[in-house]
Amino acid sequence: MPTAGGGVLNGLPPGSSGGVAGRGAPVFGWYTQTLTDYVLVGGAIFIAMFLSHRVLRLLGVGREAATGYALILPWLIGLVVWTIGPFIASFYLSFTDYTILRSPEWIGADNYVEMFTGDRRFWEVLRFTLGYSIINVPLGLVGALMTATLLNQDVKGLGIWRTLFYLPAVLPAAATALLWRWMLASDGLINQMFSPVYSLVGVERPSWLTNPDMVLPAYILMGLWGVFGANTIILLAGLKNIPRDLYDAAKIDGAGRWSIYLNVTLPMLSSTLFYVLIIGIIASLQTFTQAFFIQHTARAGTFMGVYIYEEAFQRNNMGYASALGWIMLIIILCFTLLVFKSSSAWVYYEGERAK
After folding, report:
1. Neighbouring residues of 216: CB distance < 8 A, sequence distance ≥ 6
2. Domains of the chain: residue spans and CATH
3. What is the pLDDT of residue 226?
4. What is the pLDDT of residue 7?
5. How many CB atoms lie within 10 A of CB 154?
6. C-alpha angle 94-121-184 in degrees, rounded to nearest 5
7. Do 73 and 82 form a contact (C-beta atoms < 8 A)?
8. Which residues of the chain have pLDDT under 70?
9. How far is Cα 316 from Cα 101, in angstroms, rounded to an integer?
10. pTM higher than 0.70 for the full model?
11. Cβ 215 vs Cβ 290: under 8 Å
């Protein structure tokens, strides 16, 4: 039976047909066009690099410096076009009433006023996102630290354990989210495993993704599984980097195992803990993929990233979504600056002079 858009449905390039006779030319044309586009882009970049090098040389810049500037030109162009440009544009759009179908209309701070005074869902989403981060980040950090400490002992097959712990970090986020959605369903694997326990204590199977009281624990479980392994590997590398001489000196002074851990291990590991903490805060506040693919039904279980997506691409409210994005940026910046400000009291860098 013929199908519409045979090229796409049969795995062929757009515009190609499923028949043998009519397939050659469209396929060849599609690949030729793609190759031509890449050649043109690459050629344009090369010409821009060459011209920038010549201009810099004419301006008196040294050969080595001019070559360096020319080589980073493609990255600079990408930075301006794909990062700085949208960054500035989103700030402007946050003060406008803008949809894709019409031009932006300047409305001042109305989006922000509506957000803080009229949008109840914004506060629900913000509370859920902050609650998730406040619980998930410390649990992930402490759990990873304990596991890394255990693996830092003389464990057989350490390479295998490292691989197993790091495996969740390299799996596709979308695939793992769908897997968790299946396991957390009412008749999913987790509820089936604990069904005898539910029967013993006389409770019904929890609806992890539809009950507002269970959505947050479900996401915390998923989040810990995703970051636990990566944090463990990073902290284990930090533990391996601590000089053994410090432990030997502490033992000679008569320090016990717990005293050594508190006064030697943790201070020497503080810079690694600081890094893991910063990355964890930023990642948890920006949670999107797992929440997007889970598609729960509880309103109280929406993250800020998903809410911004809904406003922008489902409700076509680009101006308001831009304002939400900037508020989220400010929140992340505040948490990050707070941790950086406190780091002088608890983070130690080797070679740093005591104050």
Report:
1. 128, 131, 132, 135, 301
2. 6-106 (no CATH), 114-346 (1.10.3720.10)
3. 82
4. 43
5. 5
6. 120
7. no
8. 1-31, 295-300, 351-355
9. 9
10. yes
11. no
